[in-house]
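Please, structure for the following, as tokens.
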Amino acid sequence: MLSLVVVLAMSACSNDDDSPKPVNEEELITRVTITLEAEGEEDVILEYSDEGGLGHDHDHEGEGTHDEDDHDHEGVEGEASGPLKPGVTYTGTIALWNESVSPREDVTDEIREEADEHQFFFTPVGLDIEPGYADAESDYITGGSDNPVGLKFTLTTGATGHGELNVILKHQPKKPNTGLEDAGGETDMEVNFHLHIEE
């Protein structure tokens, strides 16, 4: 089985000027779905949902104190459809949803529209997986650069085993960058997957 731990931190910028400019606040995310596809193999679906929102703390700004435990998702386990196979390249797609409204909102659209302000980062820990990007800003916005976004990505598996895959969504990272440590920006989302690679 695969399991995931989700810790999501959503934040919004503020402006202390007398006449603040409008800011684009991050959307409420209540569901994360990652689909991994490979030719000749069954799809692997990684998913987590929370009707209250995944750590959407900025909704409480200006409303007084609140219990931080309400947004503590550490230790929460999601669902996955099965293990990965060794020696396979999977193509991954990420979908983010707000299901607190009807009809539900596809938050992924915001990432596409602001592709130059977002980037996913994929870091394996103790896991024989090589991540890569399969998209660029220019796939989503007119005049966009070749800098990666990560809504589409690849995972190439190696030997059997198990470990963690950390997935982080950064808002306004430095682009281009050489990786997560060099990227800066604010963390909009962080997901840890405990993955198994099995024959």
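The radius of gyration is 17 Å. Residues 120 and 169 are 4 Å apart (CA to CA).
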